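Thread: quick sanity check before group meeting

JM: Hey all, I'm pulling together slides for Thursday and realized we never actually wrote out the predicted structure for the chain we discussed last week. Dropping the sequence here so it's in one place. If anyone has concerns about the input, flag it before I start.
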Amino acid sequence: MSNDVAFLAEFADGQPARSALELAAGAAELATAGGGQAVALCYGPGAGAGAAQLGAAGASRAIVLGDEEAPAITVAAPAAAAVKQLEPVALLAPASPNGRDLAAALVGLLELPAFGPVRAVAIKDGRLQAEQATLQGTVITTSEPADGAPQPAVVLVLANTFTPQEGGSGTAEVSDAPAVDGGAFGKARIAESHPAEEAVANLEEATVIVAGGRGVGSEAGFAPLEELATALGGAVGASRAAADAGWVPYQLQIGQTGKVVKPSLYMGIGISGAIQHRVGMQTAENVVAINKDPDAPIGEFADLFVVGDLFAIVPKLTEEIKRRKGR
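JM (edit): ok, ran it. Output follows.
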């Protein structure tokens, strides 16, 4: 067993996904503390050509599992073979649809323990420790593999748990994964593919988010929020209540069962701020809330809590932002 920390790195058009950059930073931090290296397991279109650039993000080595446009699960067999060779102390996987699929396949193929989705990972005295929210976000637990459990442990990591390195240099040493039979997983194919709306695709990377909840009242009620988000150069998000009501797509949902975001500014409008929503945005640098209920839970952790009618406040706020921008 080595002290290396491996991570799944998804690529598109030759560029690593943000999740790959985040996990590269996290794997490098964990591996360095234990005297090991961060090793990327790369897959997706252009992974072969782009794998070396993960060196600037923290990876010492990169193993290319496949670089075709195909379901992530198709590289499960070569990924399993690579993990067997590496014998890392941990395997980090993004808690994204592709990351979950591939991680689950590896857990099954290699009979490994799994944790997550987690919001913090540590390795102490050679043992993995994973921190996650349980019981609908009301309890934070720290777990570790049982004595004698197979290694590595597979850890699903929530978006924005780690911050990508900036200004890094260097290249990762690149090699191909062992040539193996892809098996049943290797036969999976994409039936249909189309780009998501820009606001949906960039929600987890947005520096400004304007989110609406039950208090917005309807699909039409999101129009003022969209105008405010545009004025701020941000994206629109929503609580589960708003998504369940069909007012916005589920891809915009923020919270325990939705996206986890970490913007510089988070505006919660008409959102009560229940714990299930809070776990998805509590790492925002600044939180502004607008709610007509002075006792709304979001007021307990908001940096600025405005009590009033959002339909009177939001349009005036948008006008003022536009006026100041036009100076």
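AS: nice. The chain has a mean pLDDT of 90. The radius of gyration is 21 Å.
JM: adding both to the slides.
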